[in-house]
Design goal:
The chain has two helices and eleven strands, in the order ββββββααβββββ. It is mostly beta strands and 140 residues long.
C-alpha cells in the first residue's frame, strides 16, 4: 500500500505493519490506523507513529524505559483484555515526544503511554492513574 505523507512524501506500507487503535488517540479519535517508521533502526532513540487515515498526522515516539530508569506501566485488566494481551513480552510501549522550537525543552509523555500488542497489532493510549510520571518529562 502506498501513502502520500506530509513529512515523508510517498511511502510504501506493508499491510501487516498497520497498527489499529480502535478508539483512536485522545484528540485524534478519527485516526485509527497507524504504522511505525524508523523503528528498525537499532540505535535510533526516536521514530515515528505515522497516521494512515490522516497522512498529515505523525507523532515522534520513543521507548519510555530508555528515558526513565524507574519507569513502569500500570495497566488495568480492562486494557489488557481490550488489547488482547496474552504475552506481555510482545507488548511494545511507546511515549509521545514533544519537540518545541527550543530543542532543550524536549519532553516525553510518561503519564499516557501507547501500548501496542505486537501479536495482533492492536494499540491503545492509556492514561495511568499513578501520579509518579508526568505528562511533560523533560529529557534534557
Amino acid at each position: 500500500m502506498q501513502l502520500q505523507t506530509k513529512l515523508f512524501g510517498k511511502i510504501d506500507i506493508d499491510t501487516k505493519d498497520i497498527i489499529i487503535f480502535p478508539s483512536g488517540l485522545p484528540g485524534f479519535e478519527d485516526v485509527k490506523r497507524f504504522t511505525l517508521l524508523g523503528k528498525q533502526e537499532a540505535d535510533a532513540p526516536f521514530f515515528w507513529l505515522q497516521g494512515i487515515d490522516d497522512p498529515n498526522l505523525a507523532f515522534v515516539v520513543t521507548d519510555p524505559f530508555s528515558i526513565h530508569k524507574d519507569y513502569f506501566v500500570d495497566v488495568d485488566d480492562e486494557d489488557i483484555s481490550e488489547l488482547g494481551i496474552k504475552n506481555t513480552e510482545r507488548v511494545l510501549t511507546l511515549s509521545i515526544v514533544t519537540i518545541p522550537e527550543n530543542i532543550k525543552d524536549i519532553t516525553v509523555n510518561l503519564k499516557a503511554p501507547l501500548l501496542i500488542n505486537m501479536q495482533n497489532n492492536i494499540g491503545k493510549q492509556i492514561i495511568m492513574k499513578e501520579e509518579k510520571f508526568p505528562v511533560k518529562y523533560y529529557i534534557c
